[in-house]
Amino acid sequence: MPTEPIPFTRRKANAPAPVNDVHIIWITAGLSCDGDSVSVTAAEQPSIEDVILGAIPGLPKVHLHNAVLAYEVGDDFMKYFYQAERGEIDPFVLVVEGSIPNEDVKDEGYWAAMGTNPDTGQPITTTEWIDRLAPKALAVVGAGTCATYGGIHAMAGNPTGAMGLADYLGWDWRSKAGLPIVNVPGCPVQPDNFMETVLYLLFQASGLAPMIPLDEQLRPTWLFGKTVHEGCDRAAYYEQDDFSIEYGSSKCLVKVGCWGPVVNCNVTKRGWMRGVGGCPNVGGICIGCTMPGFPDMFMPFMDEPSGARFSTAALTLYGKMIRSLRAITNRTVNGEPEWRRRGRELITGYQPRHGAYVTRPQRKAA
Amino acid sequence: MDMHWDPITRIVGSLGIFTKIDFENKQVAECNSTSSIFRGYSIFMKGKDPRDSHFITSRICGICGDNHATCACYAQNMAFGVKPPNLGEWIVNLGEAAEYMFDHNIFQDNLVGVDFCEQMVKETNPSLWDKAQKKEAPNAKIHGFKTIADIMTALNPFTGTFYRETLEVSRLTREMFCLMEGRHVHPSTLYPGGVGTVATVQLFTDYLVRLMKYVEFMKRCVPLHDDLFDFWYEALPGYEKVGERRILLGCWGSFNNPDKCDYRYENMSDWGRAMFVTPGIIVDGELVTNDLVDINLGIRILLGSSYYDDWQNEETFVKTDPLGNPVDKRHPWNQTTIPRPQKRDFNGNYTWVMSPRWLDKRTGDHLSLDTGGGPIARLWSTALSGLVDIGYIKSTGHSVQINLPKGALLPETSFEWKIPKWSNAIERDRARTYFQAYAAAAALFFCEKAMEELMAGRSKTWAPFKVPEEAISCGFHEAVRGVLSHHVVIREGKIANYHPYPPTCWNANPRDVYGTPGPYEDAVQNTPLFEENGPANFKGIDIMRTVRSFDPCLPCGVHMYLGNGKVLETRHSPMFGSMKGK
Fold first, then answer.
1. How far apart are CA A260 and CA B340, in angstroms?
2. Domain residue spans in chain B?
3. Is-contact B477 B71, C-beta < 8 A?
4. Cβ pair A188, B186 in contact under 8 A
5. What mean pLDDT value characterizes chain B?
6. pLDDT in tens, A47-72
7. Using alpha carbons only, what angle is made at residue B501 by residues A301 and B481, rounded to the nearest 5 degrees?
8. What pLDDT score does B376 carry?
9. Once rounded to an integer, what is the mean pLDDT over residues B299-313?
């Protein structure tokens, strides 16, 4: 056994001292369906138990407080939220799931709440919890499109005035550790995308990673830097102007409502779980569920996206030509070279030293 | 003494339970439940394209979103007059079967199971732990755990071996789901008219190989739970009273039979009975009806003490159904949702949830049906109707036989779920395990039917349709935790009215205008308490087991609080953990 701790060479000399314990305080009480919590139980890269049981080197001890998975109930569960508010739990990562309702659009009552205020007997609103906890958090993470940008519950005509975390806290908001809000969109969030972001933040808290790289919409760049189309195994059909006009086909779905060419998401590369499933790669049109403009800018979902009509029309001549040229080559490579046959002659091009059998010299491979 | 647990964890959603406990008589005297979110689906869906409804309503629930999407597609199919190709229907059935296999599995052993684990039992009933260590598990040879205590240890969160195995199995089953419906929990490949899933030989190979692993898992899982639950009755005599309520069960049927289902309302009674989980309403152990048209017309939405204005003076959208039967003003087709947010007032309005009831024409009663978390109602209804007979599953009129084929290591195995004596917490939980096996057995049948279609060259999975200017329609399905209906009115090609009714609305609602309590309240009230802790460190484990036996998912329902009766015991004491002394 080595006497010194493992040095972790990627640790910078000037990095802050690594922390031993990190709490994850997870508010599921936005306007949500809890689908992001459920989704995260499907993650394997890493899994929840990998993180909690310390399966990855360099991680601090992680204490997860999530209502779907907690052992504790009621006040036993809520006590961590109060401790975090009082600064007794430090550091902690605040995860918010669900859209943030606008509690100011009405005179009284509440749209979303968690726990009961012992003084008033009234529920404590979710926005109040965010106000209490966000200033104390090491980082604030939005899990899923509701928390990040508003999502389904922020659809036109909604009664609650729902919005995303950055709309509520401000897009320039910084945590006490200087981190912007970290958005991991998706409806629900892709399981591994979320857990990998948490893993990165834990590495960062341990001084094993620099500031998390985020784009303008506050998404991790390595997860959301490419479009659905760029990772889609049906993109070749698009290139060849070979579009499906019905569902259930294995061709490109752009003409029946797929928004993949303009949507930032890695689901076609990563699949949904262990590479299984996804969206356009398995026959589901991309409805833009990771995007700030979701859902309104993509509805009605099953119509061809307006922009696609022009770009696919421009492709017609090129696509058809490519398709026919490839068909010719495809037929060629579907045949075998001629030397694979029975008979006395060896015509592979090999020149034996002993003329034991008949050869035809100097054949070139086809 | 007033005690409350807010939030109730290890469920999906925001539920709080407020009770009055009679510690002297070890009994719950009164129960009030509350949940805390309003989102307004019925409001923001108005005016939207009816083809979008399954994408939108999937987002109602984060654990059974696909059940909503499927139910919405059923309603779309009826409205658009489209019958999907048989292969498309088998694929939906395979996806939904995987959802039951996954969801019941993770809920049973990663969420409910914790209430039965070593850590919990040691904290709440130390004497039970002693008994469990001495009690040999009758089915030890099959599942490998020597004593009941060994099973309890295996259920400890994260460190328990069975807990971790279940978590792994929950991933395997979700992969099966993703093969058929694209993504979990909001599917990508479901559409009105069928599915976008590309049906290939590989699709079914990938599914079947995983399914057989689950079948092998179930051969161990069912006997394990039988051992565990039987021990509770044996070690704690009287435990059958925990969570018991009158037998008032509803099941709306699941797994359409494509050979029978044409999605025409006029034929709904027939194709409803042809479903592979039979719909039915069971009152005091007796089957009242298995006719989906009767079921549909009997639904009533009562207001109770909720934050809504009544819709009595609003528009009546549907006067008669397509068969000419009158449709009530309080039926979901005619509901108008008008929220009025206000302070929570236990003497006035205190809930966002209305009270769904079923009008029993024989008696004129508005029945407060429950789903028992889904499986107990599905098995009971299927057993009584005696209609399902597909080899892997046979309904006998008094039980359901489940036959699982030989696998790599375990032999052919049959289970029989017999109608229990009670509708209580333990039997709701036990039925869940049996229904996991039922779903696996049904999936084996669907897989065969799907491959039969594919190999006969019928590989289409989707059929085209046109959206009509005007239509009314409904979808009936079983969400994982019970009855699910979607009611739609289409005008000028847009959604004019849309009301989904998920299971937790049926289970977790407050007293209605007639004073009839909702099922949770009913089941928790008068529950005897077996917990050995006194008021000081009371966990309320028997109440938790009762509530969780219904498999609550509050994003669907959102908001309850029930009752406000007298305080049995008033005591001034400091705060003790989960307890609030008054």
1. 40
2. 2-557
3. yes
4. yes
5. 90
6. 988 998 899 998 999 999 987 777 77
7. 100
8. 98
9. 88
Chains A–B, number of C-beta pairs less than 8 Å apart: 278
Which residue has 């008094």 as its token pair?
B398
CA angle A104, A110, A115 (to 5 degrees): 130
**Poorest-pLDDT segment among A251-255, B10-14, B375-379, B400-404:** B10-14
pLDDT beneath 70: ranges in chain A: 1-7, 13-14, 16, 354-366
Both tokens of residue A298?
């993509």
* Chain A residue numbers touching B186 (CB-CB < 8 A): 35, 187-188, 289
263-322 in A: which are within 8 Å (CB) of B? 267, 271-274, 276-279, 282-285, 287, 289, 295, 299-302
CB B404 within 8 A of CB B437: yes
**Strand B482-491 and strand B494-501: pairing?**
antiparallel
> Which residues sit opposite B302 in a β-bridge?
B355
Q: Among positive and negative, which fits the CA dihedral A33, A39, A41, A45?
A: negative
Q: Do A68 and B10 touch (CB under 8 A)?
A: yes
**Domains, chain A, ranges and CATH?**
21-222 (3.40.50.700), 229-317 (4.10.480.10)
pLDDT digits (tens, 9 = 90+) for B524-578: 887 899 999 888 888 889 988 998 899 886 544 332 222 233 222 222 222 222 2
Residue B560: what pLDDT? 28
Report CB contact under 8 Å: B62, A39: yes
Confidence (pLDDT) at A19? 82
* C-alpha span between B444 and B441 (Å, rounded): 5
Q: Which of A86, A100, A90 is nearest to A163 (CA)?
A: A100
B210 interfacial to chain A (CB closer than 8 Å) = no
DSSP secondary structure string, B101-148? HHHHHHIIIIIIGGGGSHHHHHHH-HHHHHHHHH-B-TTHHHH---BH
Give me the pLDDT at residue B353, please: 76
CATH T-level fold of B2-557: Cytochrome-c3 Hydrogenase; chain B (1.10.645)
Count of beta carbons in the 10 Å neighbourhood of residue A337: 11
Query: With pLDDT > 90 as the criterion, what percentage of chain B qualifies?
Result: 75
- Peptide bond before residue B326 is cis, with ω within 30 degrees of 0: no
Q: Which residue has the higher pLDDT, A1 or B65?
A: B65
Q: Which of residues 21-80 of A touch B (CB under 8 A)?
A: 28-29, 31-39, 41-42, 44, 47, 49, 52-53, 67-78
Return the CA Rg of chain A: 28
- As given in the structure block, the two tokens for residue B98 are 């995987």
Residue of A nearest to B558 (CA): A112
Do B304 and B510 meet the contact criterion of CB atoms below 8 Å apart?
yes
Q: Mutation test of the interface with chain A: which of B3, B36, B211, choosing the one with the most A Cβ atoms within 10 A? A: B36
Task: Report the SS3 class of residue A350.
Answer: coil
- Identity (one letter) of the amino acid at A336? E
ipTM of the assembly?
0.89
Compute the nearest-CA separation of B143 from chain A (Å). 24
Q: Which residue has the tokens 């699941």?
A: B254
